[in-house]
Design a protein that fits this description.
Elements (H helix, E strand, L loop, with lengths): L1 E3 L6 E3 L7 E3 L6 E3 L28 H12 L7 H12 L4 H11 L3 H10 L11 E6 L2 H4 L3 H12 L12 E6 L11 E3 L2 E3 L4 H8 L4
Parallel strand pairs: 5-6
Antiparallel strand pairs: 1-2, 3-4, 5-7, 7-8
Helix pairs in contact: 1-3, 3-4
Length: 210
């Protein structure tokens, strides 16, 4: 299928499986695949009409990683949050190169991609440890001693909120609310909630992760 990029005028023989959009091999601009394909002589000729140098090259590294996720979401820029969530679930965090590639391949401003990645607490632009610990510092938890729990965690791990242990085993963060105020003070390790914490229960909890 012969496609032409509206952004850089590059033409290439597209052989991918995506039904909606293709990515220009030269500038990575999103190109819409026509709804109807002209068939000549009752046969669809997919042989390239261009030289070997003009054939699309396989995306490698960060570009290939991002492109694979974008294909899953059909290059829909309205699915940017879900795209970032998929990238983060796969790699643990979102690199700045991933943000740049996503904006380039979707044809959106880098500032938009960056603002979404920094606005939502769920996203991290720096490496995270194997076990992400989030301590609730909301009013309900704070009056029940979450500050004491946080101090003890910092002492046990040797790091402050926003940091990662040298062995990459733990990351520590604070949040304003975890949505379970009746269990305060609360912390979450990965996806597991631990409530009604005190110093003794905190140490018992940590034996599961050391």
């Amino acid at each position: 299928m012969l496609l032409s990029c509206q952004h850089c005028d590059y033409k290439w023989d597209y052989r991918g499986e995506n039904k909606y959009y293709a990515t220009c091999p030269r500038c990575r601009y999103k190109v819409k695949i026509p709804d109807k394909i002209v068939v000549t002589g009752g046969k669809l000729d997919l042989k390239s009409k261009f030289s070997m140098e003009e054939k699309p090259v396989r995306m490698l590294g960060i570009a290939g990683i991002v492109n694979k996720v974008l294909q899953e979401y059909q290059y829909d820029e309205d699915m940017l949050i879900q795209i970032f969530l998929k990238l983060q679930r796969t790699f643990g965090w979102i690199t700045r190169e991933m943000l740049s590639e996503a904006s380039l391949q979707l044809g959106i401003p880098l500032s938009r991609a960056y603002s979404i990645a920094t606005f939502y607490k769920a996203f991290s632009l720096s490496p995270r440890g194997k076990n992400l610990i989030r301590v609730c510092m909301g009013t309900s938890c704070k009056v029940r001693g979450s500050s004491i729990i946080l101090d003890k965690l910092q002492s046990l791990l040797g790091i402050k909120p926003g940091e990662i242990t040298p062995d990459l085993k733990f990351s520590l963060e604070t949040v304003n609310c975890l949505g379970c105020c009746a269990l305060g003070p609360v912390m979450v390790v990965g996806d597991k909630y631990h409530g009604h914490l005190d110093i003794s229960t905190l140490q018992r909890v940590f034996k599961q992760y050391w």
